[in-house]
Predict the 3D structure of the following.
Amino acid sequence: MYLIYSHPQVFIYFLYGGKILALDSTKLINGEIIRLINIRSYLKVVVKTVLFLILSLSFASLLVIGSSGLTFAQTIETVNVVENKLVTLIGEGYDEDADDLAFFWEQLDGEPTKLSSYNVPTPQFMAPEVANGSIKVLTFKLTVTDPLGANSSDIVEIVVNPVNHIPLVSAGRDKLIFPTLNAITLVGSALDADDDPLTFSWKQTSGPEIELVNTKLRYLTIISSSIDFSNFTPMTFKLTVNDGFGGVGSDSATLYPFYAILKNRLISIDAGPLQTVREGETVTMDVTGETSNRQPIRYSWAQLIGPPVSLSNYVGDKVRFIAPDLEGENSELLSFQVTGYSKGNGWASDLAMVRVLPFNGPPIADAGPDQTVNQNVFVNLEGSGTDPEDTKLKFKWSQKSGSPVTLYQKSFEDVYFVSPFIGGNSTDLVFELRVTDSDRNYDTDDVTITISKQNYPPKANAGPDRRIISDSQVTVTGFGVDPDGDDITYSWNQISGDKVSFDGSEARISFTAPTVTSGETKRVILQLKVTDTLDQSDTDRLTLIVVPENNKPIVDAGPDQVVDENTIGSVFCSAFDVENDPLTYTWTAASSDFLIHNPSNPGTTFTAPSVISPKQVELTCSVSDGTDTASDSLTVMVQNTLSLDIVANAGPDQIVNEKIKINLDGSQSFDPENQSLSYMWTQTSGETVIIRSESSVETSFTSPTVANNEVKVLVFELMVYDENGREAFDTVVITVDPVNAPPTAEASAIQE
């Protein structure tokens, strides 16, 4: 990012990500969120400021520019980090008068943390532990002050995210089982470093299949009656444990059925528990016994199952043999029957079981490279252990020599401590990492941490973690800063992930991203090491998440709603696209009478239709990134309110003549609920007349004959009603007047 000043308009132009962004003291252009602290209208064009403001990659870029009360624009960002890892706050200050600036950091909010220093530009702290499914937000304020007391401050937020650990699972011990047992129970256990709630699941993976019940418990109980003890094939059961956050661990236990054991109440013998040995080891089997009359017992041995071995002797209470070599990586079970005979007491037998495991050499411990660090800084001890025969390794750190320090646990393999203050120029602290496998074989490795007063080690920055596109050409640029100005050499190496090829001797490396298919992701972890001329170094890791070229947007149409008919409601569709592609939105309704006002906007309003009864209408928001489309729906329940009354209007009263057609008009009746209306005319008083269409909104009748000097009054009632039981009434009065008929004259003659 570069900062350029344009005078006299007092505009600031940011060249950011290949785009030119222009801002004045009140406007924000191109939609970028950039906070302006203060812009003076009399700002001078200063050439040296043009070269200023190259933000550090991947750090919490916090820029403060101060000079005699003059402050420039700056970008504020939230920085995401992970728990139990060192975080470096990066503060920079610029003074137009070239004064020396004083730095002061303080924590404003969040779980209290201890900074390595509060008055240096780049203090460090250890990110606190965070429970899975949660985050912790830490807020820090940097104040930069010049010698005349003018200062400027800014704030950075650090969002600490959890790192999930896979549960360590044990399915319990393998067992030899007999039909005399009522039930067999495998007791599982699991250890989760994050203390997440765990779920358990058992399933059978080999042997004669039996029906399992209650497979979601920590333990598995099997009824003996479900097992065929005439079949000696072992049965293996696998326990899988899930922590609910992507961490899944498993382990298996095997049951070995056996049937033929000779029992005798006068004599009892015991061949001992199941032994577990490695191939090539010498195995000793001892048998003990007693009789009811204390007579001696004579023992004989015979092998029943497993690869044949040669016993040192086949008679006696103690025999030895060499565990056989195994083919492949699977264990073998050897079974021996020992039979005892005592004169006057008879015979009895027992089984001696020996499980032979493939050879297991000790693990290889790696305590990490030696380090040279300053006083009063956080120091990471990052160990590792490898064992091709065993994945259940245990790690233990201890201090062997040097000024005592307190070690803090970060994970099973890693610890950290705060380097002590020293009296001389340097001193060494030696730490030992012991790695132990499940057979208690172990290996140790030492690491020496040199605490120095003289030389400050460089700081490595491998760049920000980011996503990269499958099969694309990737360029990674790291950098190092040495407080003493020493020359720095660079060394990149790959820690994990699909192998990529690059020349790791420069700050910038390029390579081709691994291939991933749709819906798949991979991680490539690189480490940058920077070393100064006194062989002090620092490392930083970069995690690259390999994603397909395009992913569908993630769409949320919002919650279901309940609205009244003929009312206006609103919906809002939110969508996220991993690639930040421009998104287009389309709202559709499953009902044609449901009017969406702006269907191409993520947030829009709608008009609910009139309904006779409650009606569910599904609204769907479809979002396209130009390549793929994803949708989500919500349901709008339209309620029929019918809260307004029907208005009946039978028309105005009339004065009419006799013997003519009179019209009755109810068309001025209406329903505010816009329901379909029906009509019924009836005569309530007066001389009865015939209404031509009683159920029409408009009807007629013929007025009756009225004698001179008289009137007749007729009253008609109009009932207006709908199918929901609502009705309204109105009356109209018709006054009928006589019409005087002229006399008729007739003239004639007669002659007699």
